[in-house]
């Protein structure tokens, strides 16, 4: 075991906390610009310390556990929600050499571990003993399991093309053309399903402020609440990284510009995905709950199954088969 | 990297993931005030006193969606190894590999169509 083994993940965690701090500020700024207002600009120059002030405030707030709550589960839930969010980052290849665990089943690991968070959300929702949070948690669970199916099925086409579940192999298979081109349908399904998995607008029904107060974390205060929020933003980081690796060629350069290091290419594409998530949030209205569930099962699921067979058919066509 | 080292990496990631909340909440305990009162411990319900239990009954349709999820999630587990091995199977067994999966998925789609027709997928 070398030093990198122990220090690497700690450095990643610190980077991640930095990312989350400034992603929240960036999100509020972007939404502010789109809505023609300045966004946070009071704390520090350009609002740079806004999120830090928010975190400090959360840290200093009293921790209230409702009298009727299931105390043990109530305290455990934020941890259950956060741990998988961090654990999935172990398999993301940031560059050729900068990856923590090189798994032959990296993609499967990501998908399997990331669904554990639903249990954390549901635990928190149930343990609060609050009607709003229970409803929010049930909605959240129903939405996340419904959209997980198209999310998982949409990448089968990529697995067929690559013949591997190793994220490294998947990135390297995109040397000729990024998968966003031959697997465009899969990309659309994946993008929509990942928005729903992240509980972000237009799929933020579990947290619909105007309907459910705050969803599954109504009763949470202070730092326990902060960990639910942190888990959510760590998932933004993870999902944007995964999208970059699966569809945008990971660290591979564009136009043969190999003098720019891979990590910069990765960051560039990653930032583009993160920006798109915020952009969509500012643009789209929230879906109705009946539209939400039907869309997953009646539109996305059949389309993602179709994508598998389209990939298989394109493999048979001589002109196209080199891309599939 | 060997498989063993990869598993240790994941164990370290999980340990760190547990450590961060535990450390942060412990440090928070030293910093934050603690003045519990019976009013604070009341469950929140839009500012009025809560009526009845918080653990209310919820609709059976959640259960139906969970069932559907299990069916299609198990299907995915069968699809992934097939997708990984597709190219080599196609080379040795021929196009039958595709037909077999078509039949398998066809049966499940039939199930989905049945659920659709029975209005299980409808959310009122």
From TrEMBL, chain A:
Q: Which InterPro entries match?
A: NADH_UbQ_OxRdtase_su1/FPO, NADH_UbQ_OxRdtase_su1_CS
Entry's localization field: Cell membrane; Membrane
Topology of this chain in the membrane = Multi-pass membrane protein
Q: Which GO terms describe its molecular function?
A: NADH dehydrogenase activity; oxidoreductase activity, acting on NAD(P)H, quinone or similar compound as acceptor; quinone binding
What EC numbers are recorded for this enzyme?
7.1.1.-
Top-level EC class as recorded in UniProt:
translocase
* GO CC, one annotated term: plasma membrane
Q: GO biological process: any one?
A: aerobic respiration
Q: List, alphabetically, the Pfam families matched.
A: NADHdh
Keywords recorded for this protein, A-Z: Cell membrane, Membrane, NAD, Quinone, Translocase, Transmembrane, Transmembrane helix, Ubiquinone
Q: Where are the transmembrane segments?
A: 6-25, 76-95, 107-127, 147-165, 177-196, 233-257, 263-283, 295-314
* Catalytic activities: a quinone + NADH + 5 H(+)(in) = a quinol + NAD(+) + 4 H(+)(out)
Could you tell me which HAMAP family the record lists for this protein? NDH1_NuoH
User: Which family would the database say this protein is a member of?
Assistant: Belongs to the complex I subunit 1 family.
Q: How does it assemble?
A: NDH-1 is composed of 14 different subunits. Subunits NuoA, H, J, K, L, M, N constitute the membrane sector of the complex.
Q: What does this protein do?
A: NDH-1 shuttles electrons from NADH, via FMN and iron-sulfur (Fe-S) centers, to quinones in the respiratory chain. The immediate electron acceptor for the enzyme in this species is believed to be ubiquinone. Couples the redox reaction to proton translocation (for every two electrons transferred, four hydrogen ions are translocated across the cytoplasmic membrane), and thus conserves the redox energy in a proton gradient. This subunit may bind ubiquinone.
Task: Specify the protein name.
Answer: NADH-quinone oxidoreductase subunit H
TrEMBL record, chain B:
User: What interactions and quaternary structure are annotated?
Assistant: NDH-1 is composed of 14 different subunits. Subunits NuoA, H, J, K, L, M, N constitute the membrane sector of the complex.
Write down the PANTHER family for this protein, in alphabetical order.
NADH-UBIQUINONE OXIDOREDUCTASE CHAIN 3
Stretches that traverse the bilayer: 6-31, 62-83, 95-116
**Source taxonomy:** Bacteria, Bacillati, Bacillota, Bacilli, Bacillales
Record keywords, A-Z: Cell membrane, Membrane, NAD, Quinone, Translocase, Transmembrane, Transmembrane helix, Transport
Q: What class of enzyme is it?
A: translocase
Q: What does this protein do?
A: NDH-1 shuttles electrons from NADH, via FMN and iron-sulfur (Fe-S) centers, to quinones in the respiratory chain. The immediate electron acceptor for the enzyme in this species is believed to be a menaquinone. Couples the redox reaction to proton translocation (for every two electrons transferred, four hydrogen ions are translocated across the cytoplasmic membrane), and thus conserves the redox energy in a proton gradient.
Q: Which InterPro entries match?
A: NAD(P)H_OxRDtase_bac/plastid, NADH_UbQ/plastoQ_OxRdtase_su3, NDAH_ubi_oxred_su3_sf
Q: How does it sit in the membrane?
A: Multi-pass membrane protein
Q: Name one GO molecular function term.
A: quinone binding
> What NCBIfam families does this protein map onto?
PRK07756.1 (NF005839)
Report the locations given in the UniProt record: Cell membrane; Membrane
Gene3D superfamilies, from UniProt?
NADH:ubiquinone/plastoquinone oxidoreductase, chain 3
Q: Which GO terms describe its cellular component?
A: NADH dehydrogenase complex; plasma membrane
Indicate the family of this protein: Belongs to the complex I subunit 3 family.
EC number of this enzyme: 7.1.1.-
Q: Which domain of life is it from?
A: Bacteria
Catalytic activity of the protein: a quinone + NADH + 5 H(+)(in) = a quinol + NAD(+) + 4 H(+)(out)
User: What is this protein's name?
Assistant: NADH-quinone oxidoreductase subunit A
């Amino acid at each position: 075991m070398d030093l990198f083994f122990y220090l690497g993940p700690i450095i990643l965690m610190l980077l991640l906390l930095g990312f989350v701090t400034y992603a929240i500020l960036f999100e509020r700024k972007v939404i502010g610009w789109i809505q023609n207002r300045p966004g946070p600009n009071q704390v520090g120059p350009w609002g740079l310390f806004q999120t830090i002030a928010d975190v400090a405030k959360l840290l200093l707030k009293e921790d209230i556990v409702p009298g009727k709550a299931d105390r043990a589960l109530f305290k455990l839930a934020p941890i259950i929600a956060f741990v998988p969010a961090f654990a999935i980052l172990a398999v993301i290849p940031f560059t050729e050499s900068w990856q923590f665990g090189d798994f032959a089943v990296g993609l499967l690991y990501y998908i399997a571990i990331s669904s554990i968070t639903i249990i954390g959300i549901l635990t928190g929702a149930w343990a609060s003993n609050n009607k709003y949070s229970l409803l929010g948690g049930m909605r959240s669970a129903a939405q996340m399991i419904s959209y997980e199916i198209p999310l998982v099925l949409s990448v089968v086409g990529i697995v067929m093309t690559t013949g591997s579940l190793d994220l490294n192999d998947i990135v390297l298979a995109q040397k000729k053309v990024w998968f966003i081109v031959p697997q465009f349908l899969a990309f659309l399904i994946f993008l929509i399903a990942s928005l729903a998995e992240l509980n972000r607008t237009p799929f933020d029904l579990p947290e619909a402020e105007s309907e459910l107060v705050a969803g599954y974390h109504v009763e949470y205060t202070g730092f326990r609440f902060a960990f639910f929020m942190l888990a959510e933003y760590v998932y933004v980081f993870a999902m944007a990284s995964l999208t970059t690796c699966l569809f945008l060629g990971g660290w591979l350069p564009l136009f043969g510009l190999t003098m720019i290091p891979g990590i910069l290419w990765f960051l560039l594409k990653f930032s583009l995905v993160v920006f798109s998530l915020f952009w969509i949030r500012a643009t789209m209205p929230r879906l109705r709950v009946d539209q939400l569930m039907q869309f997953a099962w009646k539109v996305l699921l059949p389309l993602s199954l179709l994508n598998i067979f389209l990939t298989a058919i394109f493999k048979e066509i001589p002109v196209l088969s080199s891309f599939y | 990297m060997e498989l063993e080292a990869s598993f240790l990496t994941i164990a370290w990631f999980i340990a760190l993931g547990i450590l961060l909340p535990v450390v942060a909440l412990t440090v928070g305990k030293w910093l934050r005030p603690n003045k519990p009162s019976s009013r604070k411990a009341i469950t929140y319900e839009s500012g009025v006193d809560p009526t009845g239990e918080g653990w209310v009954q919820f609709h059976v349709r959640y259960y139906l969606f969970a069932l559907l999820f299990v069916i299609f999630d198990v299907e995915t587990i069968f699809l992934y190894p097939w997708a990984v091995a597709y190219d080599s199977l196609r080379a040795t067994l021929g196009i039958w590999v595709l037909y077999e999966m078509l039949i398998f998925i066809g049966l499940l789609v039939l199930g989905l169509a049945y659920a659709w027709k029975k209005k299980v997928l409808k959310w009122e």
